[in-house]
Amino acid sequence: FAQIPAEESEDEPPSREEQADAWLGERDAAERSNEGAVTEEAEGDGQRDGEEAEQLEQTAVLSNKPRKKKKKRKTKKTSSGETLVCLCLLLMERREDTNGLSQQSQSGLIADSRPLLYIEHRNLNPENELKRYFGARAVLGDQRPRQRQYVRSTWLTAPKNTWPRYSSTGITMQLLDTRRGAQHFTFKHHREYQQVQFKFLDAVESMDPNNIVPLLEALEPYHVDSLLQLSDVCRMQEDQEMARDLVERALYSLECSFHPVFSLTSGTCRLDYRRPENRAFFLALFKHLMFLEKRGCPRTALEFCKLILSLDPENDPLCVLLLIDFLSLRAREYTFLTRMFQEWESHRNLSQLPNFAFSVPLAYFFLSQQEERSEPELSQARERAAQLIQLALIMFPSVLMPLLDHCSVQPDARVASHSFFGLNARISQPPALNQLTSLYVGRTHSLWKDPAVMAWLETNVHEVLRMVDAQDPLVEESEHKRKMRYQSAPRNIYRHIILSEMKEAMAALPLEVTSQPVMGFDPLPPLDSIVSYTRPERTNRPSNESTLSLFFRSLLPNFNLQADIRPDGEEEAGAGQDLNQGVNRLMAAMRDMLANIQFQEPPRDDNPEGDGDWD
Questions:
Q1: What is the pTM of this model?
Q2: What whole-number distance in Å separates Cα of residue 86 and Cα of residue 273?
Q3: Do the beta carbons of residue 350 and residue 436 sit within 8 Å?
Q4: Which of 129, 170, 365, 404 gives the lowest tally of CB atoms within 10 Å of its CB?
Q5: What are the structural domain ranges in the chain?
Q6: What are the b/e assignments for 504-518, b being 16+ CB within 10 Å?
Q7: Where are the membrane-spanning stretches (predicted)?
Q8: Other CB atoms within 10 Å distance of the CB of residue 48
Q9: CB 168 within 8 A of CB 176
Q10: Tell me, what DSSP letter sits at residue 184?
Q11: How many CB atoms lie within 10 A of CB 230?
C-alpha cells in the first residue's frame, strides 16, 4: 500500500474504492478455488494471522450451513472493505507534509522522496512519450521492427539497421576516484583513436566537410567528434533527419564504452568537462535533447536535461539550468520545477536567474488551475504565484515589454507610459543581464500566450506599479542588485547561448566571443582544460605566412614562400639567403601577375545609329 501514490505517473491513479474492490476481488477469487466448508477451513488453517484469521473465525461461528456461504462472504467483504479504506486513509494521512499538502504522484506542490535528479530509463525513450500522445499503433505501426543479432541494447538511443556494424572504437571509460559519495569517471582515447582524432582536426582546419566523410567511411565509422561536426553541417543544410541520426550514432558509440559501474540513474556519477575526452558526451546529450524538444517530446528532453545536470551539477558546463525550467513547463512537470526551486534556492540562488524568476511563478499558477486539488492547495499556489511574479517583475523589469511584444499583446496606457517598464529599463541593465533576458524571452514566450496567463500577469503588473509609485524599498534594493551583479557572464553561459542558437541572445554576445572561431565539436573550450595527450606539431604551417603571401598563394597556387625553409637541426648560416630567395620569389610572382593582367578596352561607338535591328 505504500506504493499506491507512486504508481505510473502518466496514468491517473485509481480511487480508494476501486483499489479496495480490486484487492477484495483477488481474495474472493482465491477463496473460490478452495473446496469444503468455511468452518473447516477456518479451524484447520493455523497459518493465517492478523485480521484475516479473526474474520474467518467470526464467519465460522455465525453459521455452519454451506448454503449461507455467499451471505457470509458478503459480510466479510464489507468488513474487509471498510478496513482497507481506513488503512488507505491512514497511509495517505501519514504521507502529508508539514504544510498539510498531500503528496501527488503526477504533479503536486511537494514532490516524492526520490532524489531530485533521479533518472528513469523509460523516460529516456521518446517512443514511450509518443505512445502516450498518439497510441502504440500510430507510433510503431503494424510491423514490429527486427533488430540484428549483434546489436547491443542501450538506454540512450535505439540502434538502427542502417548503421554500420559496431566494433571497438578505441574509447573506454575508467573510474578515477570516489569523493563525497560521488564516483568520478573519464573517457579515454587509445592510441589508434588518437591518430584518427589528429586526422579529424586536420580535416576541420581545411574548412571542407567533405574531408571528414572519408574518416567515417574508411577509418572509424563511430568517431564521435566527426559525427557531431557532420551533424551540424547537415542541420545547416536543412537535413534534420540525418543530423539527428548522426547524433544518435555518437551517443550509441559512447554508451557502448561505459564503465560497468557507471550508472545513468543513480545521479552520483560525475564527468569533468575540463577533460577534452568527456566533452563529446555532454555535447551529444545536449544536441540530442534539442532534437527531442523540436520533435515534440518535452518529457524525454527534460530527462536528458536532468542527466546532463547530474554529470556535473556544481559547475554545469553547458548551463542547462537556463533550459530546464522551459522543458519542465513544456512537459507539465510543475512539481519538479517548484521542488527544484525550493531545494536549490538556498545554495544556488536560482531566483537571480531571470528564467527561474519568471518560470517558477508560472508553474505555481498552472498548479492553481488544477481542479482536482483541494481548496487549501489552490489558495496556497495562487498566493505563491502572485508573490514570486511580483518579485520577478521588480527584479527584472526589462523582461515585460519584449515578452508582450513576442506575444503580440499591446499593454494598456498606464503600463506603456510608465518609466519603470520603459526603454530605460533595457538600456540601463548590464550586458550580461541583457543576454539572459533575451534568451528567456526568445525561448519561452509561447508559454505566456494563454489568455488566462496574460490576465494574471496584468493584475500583478499593476500591483508592481503601485509598489513603485509608493516607493517601496524593495524596488530600490533590486535596482542596486542589478547594477552590482551581472557585470560579465561566465563562459558556460556563452557556451549555452551558442549551442541554443537563439537569435535574440546571439545578437547580445560580446565581441570577444563572436570574434573567435567556434567549432561545433568543442565550442568555447574551458581555459583550464586538463589535456591528457597533445597533437603533434605540423612541419609546414601556413599560419606562419604573411597576409601578402597568403594573398598571392590564393591567386597562384604554385607559389610558396616557404618552399626552401631548411629543416630543423641544420646550420642557420643560410637564413639570410633563404630570406632573399623568398623576397625574390615574391617579386617574381608580382611581376608575373602584373604581366598577365590585360585590360579590356571599352567598345567604341563608331556607328551610333547602329547596323539595324538584332535578330
A1: 0.72
A2: 53
A3: no
A4: 170
A5: 125-135+155-315, 320-489
A6: bbbebbeeebeeeee
A7: none
A8: 14
A9: no
A10: E
A11: 23
